[in-house]
Structures are given as structure tokens and as C-alpha cells.
Amino acid sequence: MTQQISSMVITHTKASIEEMEKAWHGDIEYVLKSLYSHEYVYECAVLKTCNRVEVYVVSPKASSVLFHFAKDMGASSHIVEFYDHEDSLKHLLRLASGLESMIVGEDQILGQIKDLYTTAKNVGTIGPALDTAFSKAIQVGKKARTETRINKGSVSIGSAAVDLADEILGGLTGKNILVIGTGEMGTLVARALAHKDMDVVYLANRTFETAKQLAEEIGGDAVLFDNIDECIRNADVVICATAAPHFVLRKSTIEKAMDDRNKELLLIDIATPRDIEPEISEIEHVKLHNIDSLRRINEKNMEMRRGEAKKVDALIEEEFELLNTQYKRQKADGLISQLYGQVHNVREREKQRAINRLSSYHTIGDIESEVLDDLTHSIVNKILAEPTKMLRKAAENDEDELMDTASRLFNLDNKK
């Protein structure tokens, strides 16, 4: 019997950025190994992004495992959702298609799911149940983006940050922009900015060569990380997107920069954990926005993409049914595999017995052995063809009683 998938989900829909930060400890591999070491966890996968923490497990005691995991994380009960098998699958398909993202239809989440899947496989925590689920989710995510227009417009937190700056300033024409961090999120910001008519884009990163390469790609200027104070004095907008575990911009830095200028400064922090010290918002003529501010961008996109989201919903329902059928067939495939293995062991023993008996009368050559092998193989396959068909049909129709009867009749393990 195929094991059931359960999940625990913390997302931007219920949790603030502060709550999200508190609900995560360690890196992905550490969390995977910690979960997998649990006696009742047979498979597991973890997804961590700037606005979600999700845990998927295959376990006979999933409710208890996930509840205690959430408790150990220190996650408040009002921000955690627990899903059973079917809801976990539907959520995963919606997630891969971009329907659960803050920016509906964004492409970045699909790459993040692929990375999570690869990491979990490399660590060794993915088994047949999660392998089927994530393979299907990735396939559906690609299909949603090729068969609908769900990912047109602002399709990432990075591009939404640029749209937010554009909206607040009434356009970015002639503005000076500083992007701190040129990793995955910073790159998305920089590429979104490349399509705007600005005065100059400065890119700063602790590894100067990385900043330089991205600057050449978008036609901006790379600056040394140690020189960002000077850039801040001249910037109209600063967008922070580093992976630093501490604040990159502190209140004292911005206070000093504001002493030497006579125009407002817009700061947008899209990092998790945050790059910008929250107290900076207290400084006069400084506007600070973080990921929570991007909810407004999402609302606009949701309105624009409502029609496309309906198309994706229909696609997901169709694919969910196919996935369910696939899982049901797997319930039968486990029994069928055991049955074939059991009968083929008998076939092999009896074939060898026949060869030994015949060998006592005359020499048995390769051709005779091959004929006997083909004969016994064919007999087994013909005998098992109808039971195989009936078991698969029973699984698809949820006829568990017939499956149980077959497992008892042939002494098979219906839990595999």
C-alpha cells in the first residue's frame, strides 16, 4: 500500500516576515537529516523561501511528527496549517504552478521546488511517494506556464520590488538605484531594473567579481561593498537582497547618509532574514518597505491574472486526478511485483528441477535450456495476466477488500 503524504505549511498568507524568521532554524540539509532520523519518518522534503516554510513527510504518525516539529520550531499555532494526503498534493501542484505565491504566477518558485527536490534526493530522504508527487508538481508547473499566461507581468519578488519603487516614486526615469546583493534575488531585481529608464544602477556584493559580471550584463556599475555608504548618499532607491545572517544596513549608516543630502530615500528590503534594521524607518525623509509591502503588488496581479488562474485551476484538477490514479496503481503495483517475484521463484526452481531430471537421461544444451526458460516464463505471464489486470482495476476503484483478499490468498505484504 502506497504511504500517505502529510505536510505542514507556514506561508505569507498567515505569517508576517518576523514570524517566518523565527520559524526556521538551521539549513535545509540539517532539517532534512533531523526529520529523517525520526523513527516514524520514511520520506521527507523541506521547502524554505523568503515567504514560506513547508515540510512534507511520509509517516504512519504524520500528525504527531509534524505537530511536534512545529512546536520545536517555536511556530505559533495560528500561522501553521497541516494538510492530509490529498490536500498536500493539491497544495504542491498549486504551489508549483505559481497560484500560492505572493506574486501569483511567479517563475522563481518552480526553480526553488526543483532545487529542494534535488537536495532531498541527494541527502537520501526522497522515496517513491514524494518522488511521484514532486515529479508531477514540476511537470504541472511547467505546463501551467506554457499553456496559460499565468506568469506574464511581474513574476517574482524581485520584479515586484522594482514595481513598488516605480509606483512610490511615480516612475524611475533619471533615478539612481543601488542594489545590494547579487545572488538569485538580487539578480532578479537587477534584470527587472534593466528594462527601466534610469540614470544608473549600482550593484554591490561582497564578491566584487560577481557584481561586476551582473553589472556588465544589465549595463550598470559595480561598486565595492565597502563603498556602499557613498552610493547611499547619492541613491534615490536602495534595494537589499543579500543572504547575510545579520543586518547589512544599520540606523547609524543611514542617519549619516541623510545628513549629507536633501532628498528622500526609499529603502526596500526583500531579504530573509532582513537586511535593513527596522528602526531605520524612524529617520526623517526615509521610507522603508519589506516583503510585507509587496502584498499590494500581489493584489493588483491577482486581479489582472484572475482569468488565467481559473485556467490553471482547471489544469490542476485534471492533473490531480491523473496523479491520484497513479498513486492508486502504485498500491496494486506493490502487490503485483511481490506476486510475480513469488511465482517466478517457483518457476525458476521447477525449471531447474526439470533440467536436472532431463540431464540424467541425456545432455541438455543451451537451446533446450532456453526453450524451457521461455516456456515457463510464458506460462507464468499468461496465468498472472488476468489477476494483474483485476488488481490494477481494483486499486483504481478503491476496492481495498479485493486487494486485501489477494494479499491474504497469496501471502503478500499489503503494506509495501
UniProtKB/TrEMBL annotation:
Superkingdom as given in the UniProt entry: Archaea
EC number in record: 1.2.1.70
Catalytic activity: (S)-4-amino-5-oxopentanoate + tRNA(Glu) + NADP(+) = L-glutamyl-tRNA(Glu) + NADPH + H(+)
A single BP term in Gene Ontology: protoporphyrinogen IX biosynthetic process from glutamate
Binding site for substrate: 49-52, 101, 106-108, 112
GO molecular function, one term: NADP binding
Gene3D superfamilies in UniProt: Glutamyl-tRNA reductase, N-terminal domain, NAD(P)-binding Rossmann-like Domain
Record bears the keyword Oxidoreductase: yes
Binding site for NADP(+): 181-186
Reported function: Catalyzes the NADPH-dependent reduction of glutamyl-tRNA(Glu) to glutamate 1-semialdehyde (GSA).
Note: During catalysis, the active site Cys acts as a nucleophile attacking the alpha-carbonyl group of tRNA-bound glutamate with the formation of a thioester intermediate between enzyme and glutamate, and the concomitant release of tRNA(Glu). The thioester intermediate is finally reduced by direct hydride transfer from NADPH, to form the product GSA.
Family in the record: Belongs to the glutamyl-tRNA reductase family.
Domain notes from UniProt: Possesses an unusual extended V-shaped dimeric structure with each monomer consisting of three distinct domains arranged along a curved 'spinal' alpha-helix. The N-terminal catalytic domain specifically recognizes the glutamate moiety of the substrate. The second domain is the NADPH-binding domain, and the third C-terminal domain is responsible for dimerization.
Name this protein carries in UniProt: Glutamyl-tRNA reductase
Designated gene of the protein: hemA
